[in-house]
Design goal:
Strand order of the largest sheet: 1-2
Mean pLDDT: 88
CATH architecture: Orthogonal Bundle
CATH topology: Arc Repressor Mutant, subunit A
CATH superfamily: Winged helix-like DNA-binding domain superfamily/Winged helix DNA-binding domain
Structural class: mainly alpha
Distance between the termini: 29 Å
CATH class: Mainly Alpha
Number of helices: 7
Largest sheet: 2 strands, antiparallel
Shape: elongated
Order of helices and strands: HHHEEHHHH
Number of strands: 2
């Protein structure tokens, strides 16, 4: 089955991880997040380190260590996190048209790809990590 959009595992895992850290009443470590999300601890650790690098998380090492948010959950939009892993959202994604190989002067998908991209971007721009933990 084809997908309308392809959100990478990394972007999805980053958003879920930030929400779990924000929701936790104590520091939460990579093993706990991996257990909850059922993803590889090694892959998750790479994602978490990117979030540390971009100043979304603080990392405390040691047996009682873990991760805490560096910013308020209300200040972190889903779009800014998504773009770290995916880049800017493109409004058009027809490879034939984009590469100049399309035999038509109009897009066979009409305006749907651009409309979907705008709506998706607006959704991510208007949602924060705090919104995810509120439910």
């Amino acid at each position: 089955m084809g997908k309308i959009s392809n959100i990478s595992e990394a972007a999805s895992l980053a958003l879920h991880s930030l929400a779990l850290v924000a929701k936790s009443e104590k520091m939460i470590n990579a093993i706990e997040i991996a257990d909850i999300t059922r993803f590889s601890k090694n892959h998750l650790s790479k994602i978490l380190q990117v979030l540390v690098k971009y100043d979304y998380l603080s990392s405390i090492r040691g047996p009682k260590g873990g991760f805490i948010l560096k910013k308020k959950a209300e200040e972190i939009t889903l779009l800014e996190v998504y773009e770290i892993f995916e880049g800017k959202i493109q409004g058009h994604n027809c490879t034939l048209h984009d590469e100049g190989k399309c035999p038509f002067s109009f897009c066979v998908y009409g305006q749907m790809t651009g409309q979907f991209a705008r709506e998706f971007e607006d959704y991510l721009k208007n949602k924060t990590i705090a919104d995810l933990i509120k439910g």
